[in-house]
């Protein structure tokens, strides 16, 4: 059934349905085992491999390199559909999608020619940028040092989401000059260890734990200093919002199915069956409305990111800066609306089902746990202030940002 016929609104392009039909059977397979994986904490190695083999991880890679060359609205719409099947998988490839976007926007032609064929064949690149503890805000404790004609990489990272499932790991470093740089190393290289120690209460299957780099041997051409693409903050944040929209759809469908099948009803209710009780139907409608609105907002924000991508190659620096700032603003305006809609919906689903809905085998708590975890990234409390500052003072949103201890020296 098409997105339009399912009631989720119009597709992002005229050829979207043909594109989506390639992946919907795969999404259905992923959905079948989602609850069992959640209950048993089965890491989705097999499902990630399905995504690789299907070409999903190469969606943005140009066709001449083996990808599909999809637009950003098409990508984010597909991410919402995947998140409806299992939100853990979208989160697990988030760093990879950002790496692909960085290569597409990069000025280093040699780097593009190295990585686009690898990405086109399905290779996944996981992230290792965040560091835990009292690290400085403007530098990484993970560093490279010269060792003869080669280099050595040492350091520890956390929030390395999906790197356990990856072929490569992109590592944020401080180089010998004290400047921020990066290196992309094989996940199986000597000295690289990825540890499944993520113990958050949500998104439990994303392997968002620790990566250790112990005396990892590098060549100088593996180190690069190319900065992140300009719309990276909005891009990474919108992946969270697409995931939330997918969670909204999933819980809406599960809620509707359970209400339709429910035989017992309260004597103080409004009908012989729960499916005929207008108050219960009202709750179902609110949950579905939250999912619909979230998906529509995600798609609109994706259009803003597409304009930022297009501006990258238009040759007008001033226009590119402005378009990127507005794209960040649009995502910021979307963030708390989508988060609030889905967080509220994850709570009120229980109003339509009663105490039996809290039984563990149903795993309905996963929707709130996952949504709450996603909504805790990149503190959303700051976004409304940024939007308000633009509305009142015309202040454009800040560009790239970091977390850490402020160096007062």
Automatic annotation (TrEMBL):
Molecular function GO terms recorded: 3-methylbutanoyl-CoA dehydrogenase activity; flavin adenine dinucleotide binding; monooxygenase activity
Annotated GO biological processes are: L-leucine catabolic process
Which keywords label this protein? Monooxygenase, Oxidoreductase
The residues covered by the Acyl-CoA dehydrogenase C-terminal domain are 242-377
Transmembrane parts of this sequence: none
Keyword check for Nucleotide-binding: no
The residue ranges of the Acyl-CoA dehydrogenase/oxidase N-terminal domain are 29-122
Which Gene3D superfamilies does the record cross-reference, listed alphabetically? Acyl-CoA dehydrogenase/oxidase, N-terminal domain (1.10.540.10), Butyryl-CoA Dehydrogenase, subunit A, domain 2 (2.40.110.10), Butyryl-CoA Dehydrogenase, subunit A, domain 3 (1.20.140.10)
The answer to whether UniProt assigns keyword Magnesium to this entry is no
> What name does UniProt use for this protein?
Monooxygenase
The species this protein belongs to is: Erwinia typographi
């Amino acid at each position: 059934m098409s997105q339009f016929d399912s009631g989720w609104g119009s597709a992002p392009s005229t050829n979207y349905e043909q594109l989506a039909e390639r992946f919907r059977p795969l999404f259905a397979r992923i959905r079948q085992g989602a609850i069992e994986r959640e209950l048993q904490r089965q890491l989705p190695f097999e499902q990630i491999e399905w995504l690789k083999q299907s070409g999903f991880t190469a969606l943005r890679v140009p066709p001449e390199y083996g990808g599909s060359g999809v637009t950003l609205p098409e990508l984010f719409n597909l991410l919402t559909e995947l998140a409806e099947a299992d939100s853990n998988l979208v989160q697990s490839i988030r760093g990879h999608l950002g790496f692909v976007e960085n290569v597409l926007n990069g000025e280093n032609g040699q780097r593009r020619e190295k990585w686009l064929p690898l990405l086109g064949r399905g290779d996944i690149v996981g992230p290792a940028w965040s560091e835990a503890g009292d690290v400085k805000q403007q530098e990484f404790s993970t560093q490279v040092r010269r060792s003869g004609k080669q280099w050595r990489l040492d350091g520890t990272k956390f929030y390395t989401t999906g790197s356990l499932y990856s072929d490569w790991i992109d590592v944020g470093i401080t180089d010998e000059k004290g400047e921020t740089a990066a290196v992309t190393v094989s996940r199986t290289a000597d000295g690289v260890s990825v540890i499944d120690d993520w113990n958050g209460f949500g998104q439990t299957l994303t392997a968002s734990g620790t990566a250790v780099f112990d005396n990892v041997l590098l060549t100088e051409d593996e180190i690069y200093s190319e900065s992140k693409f300009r719309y990276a903050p909005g891009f990474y944040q919108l992946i969270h919002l697409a995931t939330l929209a997918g969670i909204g759809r999933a819980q809406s469908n599960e809620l509707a199915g359970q209400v339709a099948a429910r035989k017992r009803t309260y004597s103080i209710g409004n009908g012989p069956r729960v499916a005929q009780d207008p108050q219960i139907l009202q709750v179902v409608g609110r949950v579905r409305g939250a999912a619909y609105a979230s998906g529509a907002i995600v798609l609109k924000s994706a259009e803003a990111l597409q304009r930022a991508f297009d501006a990258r190659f238009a040759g007008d620096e001033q226009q590119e800066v402005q378009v990127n700032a507005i794209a960040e603003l649009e995502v910021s305006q979307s963030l708390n609306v989508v988060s609030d809609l889905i967080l509220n919906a994850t709570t009120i689903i229980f109003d339509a089902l009663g105490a039996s809905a809290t039984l563990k085998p149903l795993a309905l708590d996963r929707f709130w746990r996952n949504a709450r975890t996603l909504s805790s990234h990149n503190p959303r409390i700051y976004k409304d202030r940024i939007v308000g500052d633009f509305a009142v003072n015309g202040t454009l949103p800040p560009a790239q940002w970091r977390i850490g201890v402020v160096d007062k020296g």
